[in-house]
Amino acid sequence: MAPDICGHPHASALPRGAPLTPFDETFLRKYKRRHPHLFPQDAAPAPADQPGAGLPRSASNGYATEAEFQTAAKSALEGRGWDVQESLKGSHGGGTVWYTPGWPDLAIYLQDGTRRLWFAELKQPGRTPTDEQLACHARLRNAGFRVVVAWTLEGLLAIEEEERTA
């Protein structure tokens, strides 16, 4: 095997400065989704809704507590094929649980090889995300992840449909 231009037997046969084979749009879209840090010029995904735009306390989402809402949301998303990782709700032994303050309630992903991951913060009517939650959501969005705040199961499932077709 004869060495090429740079003298290394395993180096590329392309001369320096030669154009590379262009990627098709589908490949490029998936690549950007997997490696958002390589494309800082692309804006981070916008939030699906504004955190302060929630439901008034007088409205109802059909659940007495946020924990009940979270359980129903997890079941509904899993029924649509998503894997859902819930944030810790407490400790089994009653001791302290160390968790990053503000971390979203649900991490949602598909096991289809697309590295699709998004986060959902669930809120009861009349409640809004805390400052710690908003700061954590901003960090995740700056890293290229989608973070949504949902006050109803219907709203969350509408966002799920958008994410599935993205």
Task: Spell out the key features of this protein.
single chain, alpha+beta, Trna Endonuclease, Chain: A, domain 1, four-stranded mixed β-sheet, 4 strands, elongated
Describe this protein's structure.
This protein has a domain at 51-165: Trna Endonuclease, Chain: A, domain 1. The chain is built from 4 helices and 4 strands, in the order H-H-E-E-E-H-E-H. It has helices at 25-34, 66-79, 131-142, 153-165; strands at 83-86, 106-109, 117-122, 146-150. Helices cover 30% and strands 11% of the residues. It has 166 residues and is α+β, with helices and mostly antiparallel strands. Strand 3 (117-122), helix 3 (131-142) and strand 4 form a beta-alpha-beta unit. Helix 2 runs parallel beside helix 4. Residues 64-154 form the VRR-NUC domain.
Short structural description:
Its cofactor is Mg(2+). The chain is an alpha+beta fold and 166 residues long.
CATH C-level class of one domain:
Alpha Beta
**CATH architecture assignment of one domain:** 3-Layer(aba) Sandwich
**Which topology of one domain does CATH recognise?**
Trna Endonuclease, Chain: A, domain 1
The side-by-side strand order for the widest beta sheet comes to 1-2-3-4
Number of strands: 4
Unreliable stretches (pLDDT < 50, length at least 5) are 46-52
Q: What best-fitting shape do the alpha-carbon axes yield?
A: elongated
Helix/strand order: HHEEEHEH
Bin the helical content. Answer: 25-40%
Largest sheet: 4 strands, mixed
Q: Please state the CA-atom Rg, rounded to the nearest Å.
A: 22 Å
SS strand fraction: 5-15%
